[in-house]
Write a structure and sequence with these properties.
Immunoglobulin-like, 4-stranded antiparallel beta sheet, mainly beta, 228 residues, 14% helix
Length: 228
């Protein structure tokens, strides 16, 4: 049964990407840093605060909402993700007590040469086919981890936020090889679109880290209508 489900998911991802217009990072400049902002689902004021750390020029930003102590009764419980806590733990960040929001800015590792492509198709049946394709820079040593986040782009004034956000709605994180073995890349699969997410505002943001946690490459997709 599990094998059949996995096969169905793989076929769905390939089909979704083959039959729908792809949105990818083609033509977008490679970022120089990755900014991750974390807030607790308990903290409604954190969502509406104006003093949010802004992303410097050339930086990709994404917003995580961690499950709160109030559980399903937390003001932001509807958009909280368990993976947000896992990511914060990975970075060594702790939200507790009065610390309801934190940010982490990582410059991409110097040396260059890494190539990263992220792409997605249209949302169909509550899923969106997405992929990450990475080619490690010469001399880079693994193991590598690929991170592929489904984000909802919320302009200032949307859903009560006074600042633009890239809200993480789903996440895939897994070990990957230094180079893809096929045309689809190291990660390719359908990602669940949570209830309440607006499909037209969804993009994927991906990055690759090494065994020391350094970010080697990052990229964000853009559909044709949103390209600069």
């Amino acid at each position: 049964m599990r094998h059949c489900l996995a096969l169905a998911c793989a076929l769905f991802a390939a089909s979704a990407q083959a039959q729908s217009p792809l949105c990818d990072n083609t033509g977008r400049p490679a970022p120089r840093a990755l900014l991750e902002r974390f807030i607790s689902a308990d903290c409604a004021d954190c969502w509406t605060a104006r003093d949010v750390r802004a992303a410097p020029r050339g930086t990709l930003a994404l917003d995580w909402v961690l499950p709160g102590e109030q559980g399903d009764d937390a003001p932001l419980a509807a958009v909280a993700r368990r993976e947000a806590r896992d990511r914060a733990d990975f970075l060594g960040l702790r939200l507790s007590g009065e610390r309801r929001q934190l940010s982490n800015l990582k410059q991409l590792a110097r040396g260059g040469g890494a190539r990263l492509r992220v792409a997605h198709g249209l949302a169909l049946g509550g899923y969106m086919g997405a992929s990450l394709r990475f080619e490690a820079p010469r001399g880079a040593r693994g193991p590598f981890t690929g991170w592929l986040a489904l984000v909802e782009l919320l302009p200032a004034g949307t859903e009560g936020t006074p600042v633009p956000r890239a809200l993480v709605r789903n996440l895939i994180a897994e070990p990957i090889a230094a180079r893809p073995q096929g045309s689809l890349g190291q990660i390719w699969r359908p990602m669940n679109v949570p209830d309440g997410a607006t499909a037209e505002r969804l993009e994927v943001l991906g990055w690759v880290s090494d065994e020391r946690g350094r970010v080697l490459a990052a990229a964000q997709s853009a559909c044709a209508a949103r390209r600069p």
